[in-house]
């Protein structure tokens, strides 16, 4: 396995020891391995593996064996294998320990079990209104309580033991540092080089041209992104990706990116269950989605029975035991329940722990075999009003304007925030950092990488939305009620307050940039330097399409294909939201004005787009608004005049292509409009010299060829539906397939046009360079070969 060569990363599996190990575990001055490699861990009475350290004569730390036990190397007792303990909460030794999230979680489980056991309305009434499985809950909870009690032989003790085993979790020995740069990490650059060799061959097959005619420099960088939308996005996105795979397009792709349900899609695709086959993934979903994720018998059965219990609970145990100050909340439980449905194969037995770490997915990308997956989440930055000067109203207005979402991304290589211009290795997510370096725990080790189940909860935590988002969800249902107008007006007046309140707390992970105030960009919010943990949530709170990471410098995406399965693709208009981000980042080539056509464009809409998109700074946003306010109205009117036929109901068809232009730039007074290409002819705008990024948009719309399925009307397609029958999965798959078929040939023509444009640019560039080399030779007197040969100063030379 190869890691980046920057500080905190090992360059190869053969030379990692001097750089990766904590001082206690590195070779001693004599060049001999540390005692870590010859002496085992000591298991304390609390069930925590703790290598004891002493200071050696040469000043280095050495791992020592507990002298009380007088054990020799290799003679320590293994973890107990029996499960015959009487699980109970460990004796209360200190009030501090009793208040830890771990003990509070176990206590809540006990209280829940006792409450259900005492529930009695009389046998006849209970049997009538209470389902039979309800009576089994105390049994499951008691068993789960026993396994999480940390008593000798319990599952939690076994998990905690293995969390300290370098053979199972090698990253606990690796030293990590924060990488400060806007550039891509070394591993991703290596991936791009290797992936290009594969996409070159794939493009020749996709366009049906001889491979010798495709120069690697001409191959477009294609990215596919999927939207949020819960299980609807997961099922529909899988079908869309399968259609692209069958058509040969997926093999030409360099990146995939996801939000919410599309992140789950990527997780499953790079798992042992799907085996990098979208067709197998669909079959997996048909087997697993017929039961609600929170159905107690199914969920508790998997959480309390081997081998799935250890598979699902390992991340939770490691987080609660390893980071005592971290909050344990609903998102963590949600993630475990999601994993119980999605990360367990049919039969519940063939689970693979290798699926539980995002960094392990690099085995599918290190040689460029498959596209690099990008996972997303956001942090809601809400400044305190007392940080500003002025009246109460002025402070509130300034705080509202400075509230925005910070985007964070995961790849198998790095966890990164573009706004911070900082990132850490993905295998280091979950451990504490300070001043740019990871903090070793008392036993000289780090925690294992944060497990996938907990991150699945973060990626899909749409319920952590603000009150404002909640109201937007239920508002359509309330419109027919008496007195709605007054209620709506009252709530609109409190909008500034509602956008700051999250009724359900987001999940937290350690802040890897803590203590780096002097090294982070000046635009970093003040509050960020004071928090030890990051509250992360569903990126759909900011934009339900993961466009921003794909516009990051260095990725150089030429063609972006967006499969949008959002709840209301037209009303939300997520593509238009990205305009503000592109303007502030100074991104050339983004098709400004793309998205669903609107009937009017006002200053307020422009401001909202700028504030909703990720911002460099709020002050800068206000400056940009003043420059583009007048041009936006003209620009949007031009965008509405799309050259393709529009559906009378939606305004856009099943496949729409927009082409940006490189003529636009950050301070322009009149940005050049993006162009929507005609559906049935070669997209000449795509091949023009000034063409920029090409956006191909596939919204999930009702299709006459699939009757009875309408994303806007079918109840089972709600974002909040967590049960899909096999028949419903087939219906969604059919709809997404039908929509892709409507635009697949148009997509092929577009990709061909981009390839030809890049080829023509390269040929022109090479001609210019060749002519420049000839002129330099002439200036040096080199005409017929070696300087001076045939150079006689007459007309025959």
What does it look like?
The protein is of the alpha+beta class and 797 residues long. Helices cover 38% and strands 10% of the residues. The protein contains 25 helices and 17 strands. The strands form 4 sheets. Strands 3-9-8-7-6-5-4-14-17-15-16 form an 11-stranded mixed sheet. A two-stranded antiparallel ribbon has the order 1-2. Helix 8 (230-247) packs across helix 25 (726-779) and helix 21 (574-584) crosses helix 22. The model is unreliable at 1-96, 609-650 and 664-673 (pLDDT under 50).
Radius of gyration: 29 Å
Q: Look at the helices and sheets and give the structural class.
A: alpha+beta
Tell me the quaternary state: single chain
The profile of the biggest β sheet is: 11 strands, mixed
Unreliable segments of 5+ consecutive residues: 1-96, 609-650, 664-673
Q: Shape from CA axes?
A: globular
Q: What percent of residues adopt helix (DSSP H or I)?
A: 25-40%
Number of helices: 25
Strand order of the largest sheet: 3-9-8-7-6-5-4-14-17-15-16
**What percent of residues are in strands?**
5-15%
Distance between the termini: 60 Å
Number of beta strands? 17
Mean pLDDT: 76
């Amino acid at each position: 396995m190869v890691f980046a060569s920057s500080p905190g990363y090992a360059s190869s599996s053969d030379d990692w020891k001097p750089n990766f190990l904590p001082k206690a575990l590195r070779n001693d001055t004599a060049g001999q391995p540390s005692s870590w490699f010859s002496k085992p861990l000591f298991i304390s009475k609390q069930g925590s593996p703790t290598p004891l350290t002493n200071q050696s004569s040469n000043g280095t730390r050495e791992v020592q064996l507990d002298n009380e036990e007088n054990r020799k190397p290799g003679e320590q007792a293994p973890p107990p294998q029996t499960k015959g303990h009487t699980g109970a909460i460990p004796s209360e030794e200190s009030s501090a320990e009793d208040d830890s999230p771990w003990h509070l979680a176990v206590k809540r489980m006990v209280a829940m079990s006792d409450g259900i056991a005492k529930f009695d309305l009389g046998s006849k009434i209970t049997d009538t209104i209470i389902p039979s499985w309800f009576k089994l809950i105390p049994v499951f909870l008691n068993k789960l309580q026993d396994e999480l009690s940390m008593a000798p032989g319990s599952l939690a003790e076994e998990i905690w033991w293995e969390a300290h085993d370098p053979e199972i979790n090698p990253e606990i020995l690796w030293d990590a540092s924060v990488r400060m740069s806007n550039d891509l990490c070394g591993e991703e650059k290596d991936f791009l080089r290797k992936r290009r060799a594969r996409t070159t061959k794939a493009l020749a097959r996709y366009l049906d041209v001889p491979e010798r005619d495709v120069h690697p420099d001409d191959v477009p960088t294609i990215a596919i992104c999927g939207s949020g939308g819960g299980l609807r996005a997961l099922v529909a996105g899988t079908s869309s990706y399968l259609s692209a795979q069958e058509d040969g397009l997926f093999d030409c792709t360099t990146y995939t990116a996801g939000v919410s349900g599309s992140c789950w899609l990527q997780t499953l695709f790079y798992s042992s269950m799907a085996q990098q086959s979208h067709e197998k993934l669909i079959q997996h979903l048909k087997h697993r989605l017929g039961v609600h994720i929170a159905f107690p018998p199914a969920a508790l059965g998997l959480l309390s029975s081997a081998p799935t219990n250890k598979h699902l609970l390992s991340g939770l145990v490691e987080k609660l035991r390893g980071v005592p100050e971290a909050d344990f909340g609903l998102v963590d439980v949600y993630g475990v329940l999601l994993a119980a449905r999605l990360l367990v194969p049919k039969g519940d037995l063939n689970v693979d722990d290798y699926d539980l770490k995002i960094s392990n997915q690099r085995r599918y990308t290190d040689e460029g075999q498959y596209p690099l997956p990008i996972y997303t989440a956001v942090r809601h930055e809400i400044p305190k009003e007392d940080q500003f000067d002025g009246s109460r109203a002025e402070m509130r207005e300034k705080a509202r304007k400075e509230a925005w979402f910070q985007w964070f991304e995961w790849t198998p290589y790095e966890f990164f925030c573009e706004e911070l211009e900082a990132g850490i290795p993905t295998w280091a997510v979950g451990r504490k950092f300070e001043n740019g370096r990871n903090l070793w725990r008392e036993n000289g080790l780090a925690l294992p990488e944060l497990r996938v189940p907990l991150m699945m909860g973060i990626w899909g935590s749409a319920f952590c939305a603000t009150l404002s988002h909640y109201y937007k969800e239920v508002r359509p249902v309330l419109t027919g009620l008496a007195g709605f107008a007054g209620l709506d007006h009252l709530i609109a007046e409190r909008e500034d307050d509602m956008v700051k309140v999250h009724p359900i707390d987001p999940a937290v992970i350690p802040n890897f940039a803590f203590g780096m105030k002097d090294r982070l960009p000046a635009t970093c919010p003040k509050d960020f330097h004071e928090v030890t943990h990051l509250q992360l949530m569903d990126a759909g709170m900011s934009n339900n399409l993961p466009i921003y990471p794909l516009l990051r410098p260095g990725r150089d995406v030429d063609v972006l294909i967006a499969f949008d399965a959002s709840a209301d693709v037209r009303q939300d208009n997520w593509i238009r939201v990205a305009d503000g981000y592109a303007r502030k980042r100074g991104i050339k080539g983004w098709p400004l004005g793309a998205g669903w056509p609107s009937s009017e464009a006002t200053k307020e809409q422009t401001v909202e787009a700028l504030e909703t998109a990720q911002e460099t700074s709020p002050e800068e946003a206000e400056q940009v608004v003043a420059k583009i306010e007048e041009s936006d109205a003209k620009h949007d009117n031009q965008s509405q005049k799309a050259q393709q036929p529009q559906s009378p109901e939606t305004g856009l068809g099943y496949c729409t292509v927009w082409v940006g232009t490189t003529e636009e730039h950050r301070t322009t007074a009149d940005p050049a409009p993006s162009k929507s290409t005609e559906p049935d002819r070669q997209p000449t705008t795509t091949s023009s010299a000034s063409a920029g990024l090409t956006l191909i948009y596939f919204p999930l719309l009702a299709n006459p060829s699939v009757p009875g399925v309408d994303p806007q009307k079918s109840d089972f397609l709600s974002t909040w539906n967590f049960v899909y029958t096999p028949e419903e999965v087939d219906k969604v798959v059919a709809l997404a397939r039908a929509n892709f078929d409507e635009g697949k040939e148009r997509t092929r023509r577009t990709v061909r046009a981009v390839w030809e444009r890049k080829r023509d640019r390269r040929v022109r560039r090479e001609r210019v360079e060749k002519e420049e080399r000839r002129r330099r030779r002439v200036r040096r007197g080199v005409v017929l070969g070696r300087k001076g040969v045939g150079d006689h100063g007459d007309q025959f030379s």
